[in-house]
Amino acid sequence: MAFFLQKSSLANHFRSSYQKTEGSLAVPNRAFHVELGDREKALLAKDPSLSRFKSYKKNVWRLKRIGDVLTIVVVAGCCYEIYVKAAMREEARNQAKAAGGSE
């Protein structure tokens, strides 16, 4: 096991990070920002021919809101049905006790 830890690149990484001296220049792990090239800028540019395929934010927001409202309505309806069934079962149980206790 010790042999694998000595040869492991992960162990080498940790070992090298601890062996840095105070005088050495600390190199950040992240790369420096590089300006985008012409091809990247062209790919990120707005294309008018694709505008008919894009969703508009207001329509998407409205559709999400309708979906949220419908979800709440369905959950509330399910909870109401469970409550009604439980109340009817309790009422039937009370009536059975009353009918059984009065005889």
Automatic annotation (TrEMBL):
Natural source organism: Durio zibethinus
PANTHER family: SUCCINATE DEHYDROGENASE SUBUNIT 7A, MITOCHONDRIAL-RELATED
Protein name: Succinate dehydrogenase subunit 7A, mitochondrial-like
Entry's Gene Ontology cellular component terms: respiratory chain complex II (succinate dehydrogenase)
